[in-house]
Design goal:
Layout (H helix, E strand, L loop, with lengths): L1 H9 L17 E2 L3 E12 H11 L3 E5 L4 H4 L2 E7 L4 E4 L4 E18 L2 E21 L5 E14 L2 E4 L2 E4 L1 H26 L3 H10 L4 E4 L4 E12 L3 E2 L3 E16 L16 E2 L7 E10 H12 L3 E4 L2 E13 L2 E10 L3 E12 L4 E12 L9 H15 L2 E2 L1 H14 L3 E3 L2 E18 L2 E16 L3
Parallel strand pairs: 2-25, 12-15
Antiparallel strand pairs: 1-14, 2-14, 3-4, 4-6, 5-6, 6-7, 7-8, 9-10, 11-12, 12-14, 13-14, 16-25, 17-18, 18-19, 19-20, 20-21, 21-22, 23-24, 24-25
Helix pairs in contact: 2-4
C-alpha cells in the first residue's frame, strides 16, 4: 500500500506554494478539500498461484511405515511435479490443479514373510476454492476436493503377477486431499490478509508531507472512507475497483500536528460500482509577491498615450483586500498620483490566466486639475489591466499534468504497478488568502493498480 502514499504526494508536485518572500512565512491553513480517488485493481491468479507454490513444498506427503494403518504393508511418497495451476471460475471461485508424482511400495505375503515391490505413477489432484472478501480487509476461502484424474495408474509388477493398487492408493490420496484443503485455506488467509497493509497506508498520512521546504508548505491527507466493488473472476485474474474518499489540507509556516495513528483500519463499504474516472482536487497558491513581480514585468516604466500625452508607471504592487485583488500603481506624466484598481480574481480558460473581473478604479492625486482627466485615465488603465494583466497558469498546468502522468505510470514498490492518465487539469474556483491568491485545481484522471511480482 506504499503506492497510495506516493500517489497522493506526487499528485501535488509542481504546485505553486504560498509565501511572503520579504517577511517570515505566516501560518495559514487553506480550506480542507474533500476529494475522491477511484481505481480498478487487477490481481493475476498467477500471483496467488505463486503464493501457494511458495508455501507448498515439492514433497507433499510421506508414509515410511509398513505397519501403520492396520499393518497395510504400504509406503508412499507424494511430490509436486509442476507448479500448481489456478483458473478463475464463474461463481467467485478458483479451480486449482495440483500435478503429483507418487512413489508407492507394497508388501505381498503373510505371517511376517513379505515380498516388496514398488511403482511410480502420476495423477492430477483438483480443488474448488470459493473466495469472499470481508469488509474488515480479510479474505476468507473455502476449499473443497474436486477429485483427481490418473495420468498413469499404479500397478505393482511381480513378474507374472500384475497387482493393481489403484483402490489402495485412492484411499490414501483422498485422505491427503482433504488435509490439503485446510493447507490451502490457511495459506490464503495468511497471504491475502490486507488489514496490515490497510493500517500501514492509513497511518502513512498521520504525518504531514513537506511539499516545499522553500515556502514551508505542508500537505496532509486524511482518508475518510473506502469503497470496494465485489470481486469478479476471470480465466486468469481477479478484478475489483477501489474508491477512496479523502480530505486534503495545505498548511504554510510551522509543521501541523500529526494525526493519531490507528491500530486497525476501518471497515470498508461494498458498492455495486465506482466511476471509471475520478476527480482529485488540490490548491495552487500564488503569493502576492509573485503577483507583484508579474505586474512589474508587464507594466513598470512603460508609457501609455492619453490625449496626446503619456502616463508612465513608476511603481506597482499587488495585494489583497477582503475578496478582491488590489493593484496599486504610481504614475507620472499626464496623471501624477496613485491609481487603485481592484477586481475579483477568476480563471480565464482561453487565456490560461488568473485575471480580474468586476474591476473598480480609484485615483489619488494632489493635483486637483488632474481630476478632470480621471475618466479618460480610468478607461485606459482599466482596459490595460483587464486585457494585459494576468497570472499565467499554462506552465503550471503543463508541468503538473506531466508530473502526475509520470507518477501514475511507475512501479514505486515491488509488485505494485500503476497505470494512469490525466485527462484534464485546470484551475476552477479562485479565492483569496491572507498572503496570496489560491486556485482550486480539478484533476480528472484514471488509474489502474496491478499486483504483479509481490
Amino acid at each position: 500500500m506504499k503506492f497510495i502514499k506516493i500517489l497522493f504526494l506526487l499528485a501535488f508536485i509542481n504546485i505553486f506554494a504560498q509565501t511572503n518572500i520579504d517577511n517570515p512565512v505566516a501560518n495559514y491553513n487553506f480550506p480542507k478539500l474533500k476529494s475522491s480517488i477511484t481505481m480498478p485493481v487487477t490481481i493475476p491468479l498467477s500471483e496467488i498461484s505463486n503464493m501457494i507454490n511458495a508455501s507448498v513444498k515439492d514433497l507433499i506427503y510421506q508414509d515410511d511405515s509398513y505397519t501403520d494403518n492396520n499393518n497395510d504393508q504400504f509406503k508412499v511418497k507424494v511430490w509436486k511435479t509442476r507448479p500448481i495451476r489456478l483458473v478463475g471460475g464463474t461463481n467467485q471461485n478458483i479451480l486449482i490443479e495440483v500435478p503429483l508424482k507418487i512413489w508407492a511400495e507394497k508388501g505381498i505375503g503373510t505371517l511376517g514373510l513379505y515380498t516388496y515391490q514398488n511403482t511410480t505413477f502420476e495423477t492430477v489432484m483438483s480443488f474448488n476454492t470459493t473466495i469472499s472478501l470481508k469488509n474488515n480487509w480479510t479474505i476468507v476461502t473455502q476449499t473443497k476436493t474436486n477429485g483427481f484424474r490418473w495420468v498413469t495408474k499404479p500397478v505393482l509388477d511381480f513378474g507374472r503377477v500384475q497387482i493393481p493398487i489403484t483402490s489402495l492408493v485412492e484411499k490414501s490420496l483422498k485422505e491427503q486431499q482433504e488435509k490439503f484443503c485446510k493447507v490451502i485455506d490457511e495459506q490464503m488467509a495468511s497471504q491475502l490478509n490486507f488489514q496490515e497493509y490497510a493500517v500501514t497506508a492509513w497511518n502513512a498520512f498521520a504525518n504531514p508531507f513537506n511539499i516545499s521546504e522553500e515556502f514551508k508548505t505542508w500537505l496532509k491527507i486524511t482518508p475518510v472512507s473506502v469503497h470496494i466493488t465485489p470481486l469478479k473472476f476471470y480465466g486468469n485474474q481477479i478484478n475489483t475497483s477501489l474508491g477512496i474518499d479523502i480530505f486534503s489540507e495545505t498548511y504554510t509556516g510551522s509543521k501541523p500536528e500529526s494525526s493519531e495513528p490507528v491500530k486497525s483500519a476501518s471497515d470498508f463499504v461494498f458498492v455495486p460500482s465506482v466511476a471509471d474516472q475520478f476527480l482529485l482536487q488540490t490548491t495552487a497558491n500564488v503569493p502576492f509577491t509573485e503577483a507583484t513581480n508579474i505586474a512589474r514585468d508587464m507594466f513598470l516604466d512603460k508609457e501609455y498615450e492619453i490625449r496626446g500625452s503619456s502616463v508612465k508607471i513608476k511603481d506597482i504592487k499587488v495585494y489583497g483586500i477582503d475578496d478582491r485583488v488590489m493593484i496599486e500603481a504610481e504614475t507620472e506624466g499626464y496623471v501624477n498620483g496613485t491609481a487603485f484598481i481592484s477586481g475579483i480574481p477568476v480563471y480565464d480558460d482561453l487565456k490560461k490566466k488568473i485575471v480580474l473581473s468586476d474591476t473598480k478604479f480609484k485615483l489619488k492625486t494632489s493635483n486637483i486639475l488632474q481630476k478632470t482627466a480621471t475618466l479618460l485615465f480610468r478607461g485606459r488603465i482599466i482596459k490595460m489591466i483587464e486585457e494585459e494583466y494576468g497570472i499565467p497558469t499554462q506552465d503550471l498546468e503543463n508541468s503538473s499534468k506531466k508530473s502526475i502522468d509520470e507518477a501514475f505510470n511507475k512501479e514505486y514498490y515491488k509488485g505494485l504497478k500503476m497505470n494512469g492518465k490525466v485527462f484534464n487539469l485546470k484551475p476552477t474556483k479562485i479565492f483569496m488568502n491572507p498572503s496570496g491568491i489560491t486556485a482550486l485545481i480539478d484533476i480528472n484522471a484514471t488509474l489502474k493498480l496491478m499486483l504483479n511480482g509481490l
